[in-house]
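fyi for ur records
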Amino acid sequence: MSNAANRNSWIVSANGHADFPLQNLPLGIFSPQGQAPRGGVAIGERILDLKVACEAGLFEGEAKTAAEAASGDNLNAFFALGGPARRALRAALSELLVEGSAAQERMKALGKALLPSMYDCQLHLPARVGDYTDFYVGIHHANNVGKLFRPDNPLLPNYKHVPIGYHGRASTVCVSGTPVRRPLGQTLPPGQEAPSFGPSKRLDYELELGIWIGQGNEMGEAIAIDAAGAHVAGFCLLNDWSARDVQAWEYQPLGPFLAKNFATTVSPWVVMPEALAPFRLAQPARPAGDPQPLPYLLDEQDQASGAFDIELEVLLLTAAMREQGQEPQRLALSNTRHMYWTVAQMVAHHSVGGCKLQPGDLFGSGTLSGPEPSQFGSLLESTFGGKQPLTLANGETRTFLEDGDEVILRARCRREGLPAIGFGECRGVLLPAR
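which gave:
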């Protein structure tokens, strides 16, 4: 019912909104001017303040429990409640905000206290991130990067058997709008025998889907593939900033370290799985000759509806473009259809050895590039390792990011006959090294 195309909201700005119509209702943490952070719901150009809504008695039963859990300064307690409570809150919100709602006049009377303008509020990280894991499920990205180093054998033997990932740094996960400082590190310049230390010269972005974990599991107990979807609380956009020159020197033998731990930017709104239900689709069939996943990673229902049709976009706003009042330029348009492994497979594999997942843990999908250059989700791919600079519309060129560049990620779900829903923006401007 909450996804029905014919449902409009009495909040006029929600109707036809590019990201936040009534059919979306993502949750996040915000603070009105001069007030403490609290939970809210994006609806059009406004935010429904869950703290004020709870104090006004707008929720009952399980929806009330969920709203109270989501009204604090992080969503961890709400994530821990799981799917039934989340769906109860979503249904209640839809009924409160639908055109002709029985509570419409009562809610209007609360005015900006209940529904402040989004533009007057500060957005915060949605949850306390206990752990952050970045996967590598974008097969076109894996192929493209592999070709730069191993032209004849781009994919390592394990790639099609196991969802590859590494443990990232939770302390530097930051919300959209947080400036990112160019990192320092060791690099080995071409032709040199010894490394040097200084600012990264090959700073890059990565276009990713973020996955927020809801209910966790006990240490030593695996999450079965057919139950893995129930452990996902929602989705966001994620930019896995990467210092490619630092990465090239340090990654052997244990993988990414300083090249990835200086910043990871996420969008502030958590799009619930229920909002994405109309945009689910079958996982693309594996090419002939690819191995079938092992039984713990294979579920018929997950293969039938475990993938998503989410359009992903990267834009760049340089300092010169900003000074001249120009709009950001699109660098890539890709899609989550290019995930070789499903979200459920990522959850099942992460826990199969007994790893304890907890509410508020964050996964990154890995860079979700498509097969064409216009779909490449990183500059490493778009410039073919820095060998072919991109020329921007204003005449500037880029091999990797320069100080003052702002990277903007956007995502949107579209289906004929349904309102589009979006994720909001995930953006960060690059500051000079200290």
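The chain has two domains: 12-124, 132-431. thats all i got for now
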